[in-house]
Amino acid sequence: MDLETQAVAASQGRAFRMKAGQFARITNTHGNQVIDTWAVAETDPFEVSSMDHTRSVNSNIFFTEGMSVQSSRRRSMLTMVADSAKVRHDTLLCPCSAELYQQLGCTEYHRSCTDNFHEALAQANGECAFTPASLNLFMNVPVASDGTVDRVPPATAAGDYVVLRAHMDLVLVLSACPQDITPINGAARTPMDVAVSITNAFPLEGAQ
């Protein structure tokens, strides 16, 4: 199957329009990149992906193959129909922001997933008055029995991918997380680009 592959550049965001029934294959090209992910309903900009409803419906704090992303109106937006690495994706940590980087010691502007979300959505002629919590694809956030969380490099390899199926017409917003202070994007702390393909048919493994 020939797929038109597009890139989300390192530390940048991008929006993709999807029709109900379409698939998005999101490839972790270098294996160490976290991808903050949102969905916004095409017909109602106030209906956005909701991690609290997603956790409630799936009865799980993690997101894995077979689970669905729920909207703020508790409707299914996306289902993860394939995950080559079979990992647990994070739903707990917030998208990084200017304030977060200030707390980490940055004294000058630092790109963030929050800014990437709003910039990418604006480029798709959309807007959101707030920043929804993100589904953090490939983010490795172990949770201890006492409830504490850690931030460790992704447990994925170059070329690992997930496939998301849309349940409604929507705008898929992706941010190749700019985090370069903690090891959330790998021990090298170097954000990388990722690859995205939108297709009408299920993308077969190895298809380019």
- Low-confidence stretches at least 5 residues in length (pLDDT < 50)? none
How many E-type strands?
12
Oligomer: single chain
Tally of distinct domains: 1
Rg to the nearest angstrom? 16 Å
Bulk shape: globular
Ends apart, CA distance between termini: 7 Å
Rounded average pLDDT? 95
Tally of helical runs = 3
Strand content: 25-35%
Adjacency order of strands in the biggest sheet? 1-12-3-10-7-6
Helix content class: 10-25%
- Based on helices, strands and strand pairing, what is the structural class? alpha+beta
Give the helices and strands as they follow along the chain: EEEEHEEEEHHEEEE
Biggest sheet overview: 6 strands, antiparallel
Architecture overview:
The protein is an alpha+beta fold and 208 residues long. The chain has one domain (5-199). Helix content is 12%, strand content 29%. The protein contains 3 helices and 12 strands, in the order ββββαββββααββββ. It has helices at 51-58, 98-103, 113-123, and strands at residues 5-8, 13-18, 23-28, 35-41, 62-63, 68-70, 76-83, 89-90, 135-137, 160-166, 170-176, 194-199. The strands form 3 sheets. Strands 1-12-3-10-7-6 form a 6-stranded antiparallel β-sheet. It has a 4-stranded antiparallel β-sheet with strand order 2-11-4-9, with helices on one face. It comes from Rhizobium leguminosarum. This is DUF1989 domain-containing protein. Residues 7-171 form the DUF1989 domain.
